[in-house]
Amino acid sequence: MFMAAALVIGAGVALYWQQVSHILERDVKTHVAAAGEEAASDFNRLIQTDQKVLESIAITVEDTYPWANRTRLTEFLKRQTQHNYFKLLGVITEDGKVFLSAPAQLDPAFVADVKASTLEEGHYLSVRQADPVDGEDVLVQSVALMKDDKPVGALFALQMPERYRPLLALSAMGNRGYSMVVQRSGVPVLGYYKTSFSNVFGLLSHATFDDKDMTLDKLRTAVQEGKHLLVGYKGSSEHRFLHFIPLKINDWYLISALPTTYVAQQAQHLTWLSILLVGSVFFIFFGLIFYILHMRAYSNRQLFTTAFVDQLTGVDNFNRMCEQFPEKLAGLNGQAALVVFDINKFKVINDLHGYERGNQVLQRVARVLRENITPQECFCRSTADNFILLLKYTDRKSFLARIKALATQLRRDCTVEDSCLMIDVAFGVYEVKENIPFYIMLDRAHLALENAKKMSFDKCQFYDEADRKRIVAEKQIENTMEAALDHGDFTVYLQPKCDFTTGQMRGAEALVRWNRLSEGIVRPDDFIPIFEKNGFILRLDMFILESVARLLAAWKVKGLTAVPVAVNFSRLHLNDSRYIPQMLRLVDKYNVPHEMIEVELTESVIFNNLTRAQDVINSLHRQGFSVAMDDFGSGYSSLNVLKSLQFDSIKLDKEFLAGFEGNPHADKVIEGAVAMIKSLGIQVVAEGVETREQADFLRQTGCDLAQGYFFSRPLPADQFEALLKTSAPPQA
Ligand code: C2E
Ligand code: CA
Ligand code: CA
Fold first, then answer.
1. In the chain, what is the straight-line distance between the N-terminal and C-terminal CA atoms, in Å?
2. Confidence band for 127, pLDDT divided at 50, 70 and 90
3. CATH of the domain at 694
4. Is residue 206 part of a domain?
5. How close is the Cα of 686 to the center of ligand 2, in Å?
6. Spacing, Cα 132 to ligand 3 middle (Å)
7. What is the dihedral sign for C-alpha 644, 648, 654, 659?
8. For the segment 574-589, what is each residue's pLDDT rounded down to a tens digit?
């Protein structure tokens, strides 16, 4: 840009120079012409004036003819000389006597020449003449002296050179030009300088004229003819202009001469001025540009800082990371991993030690990261205590070693002083394998981080494609659950609870099934945990309860002997005040006796909130519902709980039974547990009974009821209904 600007300005200056030279050349011609004309007319006027002066002096001189008083005449001449600035005044009488204004020796030939010429013409103006006194070039001017119309002598004056010389200097041209008076033949008469040449045409013998048609002969002829001429020529040294102007005196010409170097000098002078001007403009222009660029760079830096730098830690922020990510990733040649980490329970640090300490920890973390990052890599603080790193990744082992070392340093260097609170970080890693957008990589690293946080130590997890698939499946479930409920895609399966000894059905458990178009019948383990997270389970459980109530009512209408049906209720209901009223509304809507409904609550629910569980169980009992503790033995079962809560039955978890298989003490433990539960007056139901051996053993232990594939799989309502018809004896 600068180069272009400089070129344009340079070309401008060159063009300007050329134009100025051209204009000045034209100007100089006009000047030479004008100055020459002026000099010529001044010269004419001067000569005529002097002529008049001489004529008036002559009148006085004539009066005193025949000049008997010689002294008086010379005194008069002396006075007139001083008065009129002549160099010398003299009277030459007819007989050759000479009276002078000042004593001088005149050459008799000069005297004779002046007298003859004057008497012949009446007046006379000399051609180039050497001063008879000092030898200088002078003009001699004279008029005839008359007495009674007869010439009696001549009055002559030697002109002071100072009188005409200034006229021959072309002062307007800065004294670079001058004029001279020549005869038509070219012989000089007067010059501003003392002329050293004999003929002006001789000087031009080697000249090259600007006008190609002009020759020396043509010039000479034109001058002979008394023409006005302006010619430019190049002589031996320099280029000049010559102006030939015919004078009104004798056959004289005034020639003005001006060297063109004068023009060049003028142009140069103007150009220097212009260059100075342009230079100043340049200077101001570039100064301004420099200033603007400087200010722009400054504000860019400011903008960069606000837009791309994390104010608290001074490291890159998320925007900056997004911006430089593609370039950095390319620089790592596909050997890269995107890592996210945050400080576990960072809020606690803020709460316990104040924000200032919290900020200090973040600043230290940033410092440690900066120390551990190579120039190829990058990192940023994205939000609060969340950092993102793009690291080089070659193999898992060395990468994990690096992360471990980093975690150790973070723990060591960033822990809050004088406190026992150690900071603890978890890392989620996405090993870059696919060409996917940054935010997707980030999502994956975050997913890995969530998994890492679930770990108790060495909290670093790599993203696993299965995790993503799981999440996608979860998302799909969430997207379709509402519609599925509306379309009746959720149905109830029923699994009988049977008497160990007789094998007769004593009850049933309602288990939900989702009939998904894409996958067929889906088991609850795939969706219940999701519904528990998003709360949809509250609606689903009520839907199952209503389905069960409707079935019970239908069986009654059909005259079938119904068995009590257990419905699973999520722990979420416990904290919902509408739980029992809703239950009642649905059950009563179908006029189902409350004792036909059993509520199954999982063991973990009860542990989490014992008093609340107690309240709910009591309320259910008051309404006539029975309550079972589900999955006993799957978690941290406490027999103490059984004491404080009034369960009607306990369901031994299938895993509880399976866990004892092959263990010599197993039988004893189960026996003891069953005996203890039964001693509290609680019914014992064994879940997941799959084999005859299991059934036989459990019967021995005193278990009341069995639920499991050995007796029956969960069945669709119509099959269950068929089973009801055949197996149950009519109730009295
Ligand atoms: P759960 O309450 O412990 O239900 C018993 C589960 O064991 C059922 O699985 C049943 O099909 C299975 N099962 C029965 N006998 C055997 C056996 O002999 N061997 C084996 N291996 N399994 C057996 P399902 O139907 O997949 O239900 C899984 C869990 O989903 C249930 O465990 C329950 O916690 C939950 N669930 C099912 N339906 C509902 C519902 O309507 N509401 C709520 N909140 N949870 C439900
Ligand atoms: Ca259950
Ligand atoms: Ca269970």
1. 107
2. low
3. 3.20.20.450
4. no
5. 11
6. 156
7. positive
8. 989 999 999 999 999 9
Q: Is 512 in the pocket of ligand 1 (CB under 6 A)?
A: yes
340: domain CATH number is 3.30.70.270
pTM: 0.56
Residue 249 domain flag: no
Q: What is the mean pLDDT of the chain?
A: 87
CA of 620 to the centre of ligand 3 (A): 20
511 CA to middle of ligand 2, Å? Answer: 8
Cβ–Cβ < 8 Å for 255, 182 = yes
User: Which residue lies with its CA nearest to atom 30 of ligand 1?
Assistant: 524
pLDDT at residue 645, rounded to an integer: 85
| One domain, residues 398 and 479 | no
Asked, for residue 558, whether it belongs to a domain, the answer is yes
Does residue 188 fall inside a structural domain?
no
Residues 511 and 657 in one domain: yes
Which of 489, 511, 685 is the pocket-test mutation for ligand 1 (most atoms within 8 Å of CB)?
511
Q: Which of 145, 163, 181 is the last residue of a domain?
A: 163
- Of 617, 490, 494, 651, nearest to 562 by C-alpha is 494
Q: What are phi and psi of 536, to 5 degrees?
A: -65, -20
- Is the per-residue pLDDT at 731 higher than 60? no
pLDDT of residue 424 exceeding 90: no
Nearest CA to ligand 1 atom 4: 511
- Considering every ligand atom, which ligand is closest to the CA of 652? 3
Q: Is the CB of 574 under 6 A from ligand 1?
A: no
CA of 665 to the centre of ligand 3 (A): 23
Domain tally for the chain?
4
342 sits in which H/E element? strand 336-343
The answer on pLDDT for 612 being more than 80 is yes
Residue 523 Cβ < 6 Å to ligand 1: yes
Q: Is the separation of the CB atoms in 184 and 223 below 8 Å?
A: yes
Gap from CA of 511 to ligand 1 centroid (Å):
6
Query: Which residues lie at CB < 5 A from ion ligand 3?
Result: 630-631, 687
- Domain residues for the domain of 52 are 42-163
Q: What is the mean pLDDT of residues 454-471?
A: 87
Q: Are residues 712 and 694 in the same domain?
A: yes
Of 97, 153, 166, 161, the C-alpha closest to 129 is 161
